[in-house]
Design a protein that fits this description.
Length: 109
């Protein structure tokens, strides 16, 4: 959970999965991270910082690369991933969900 220090407000959260997985076990949609920022706090750099810190955690677990996915229309999340070194892999279409998902890899140094 991400809590702003000056007012103790919950800003968002990030989930790190040390093993590449997804809730419905569809390998194409697998991601090492999931994150969200409170709508009123979006666009202020919090997601970028959450992911940066998450990548440090992944490195501590011995990972040298992670996979992150997000919807193609989620401009903020795409920018967050790119700002943290994300390399676009491809866009896939979920047959059941009907969603287009961008997949990125990030090399951890």
């Amino acid at each position: 959970m991400s809590i702003r220090e000056n007012d103790s407000k919950i800003i968002g959260f990030i989930v790190f999965r040390h093993k590449l997985e997804y809730d419905d076990d569809d390998e194409e949609f697998a991601s090492n991270f999931g994150y969200s920022v409170r709508p009123s706090e979006r666009g202020k750099g919090y997601a970028k910082e959450q992911l940066r810190l998450g990548l440090q955690k992944a490195k501590a677990f011995g990972l040298n690369q992670v996979r992150i996915v997000c919807r193609d229309i989620n401009i903020g999340s795409n920018k967050t991933i790119l700002a943290n070194g994300g390399i676009y892999v491809d866009t896939i279409h979920g047959e059941e969900s009907g969603l287009n998902i961008n997949r990125y890899d990030i090399q951890i140094e």
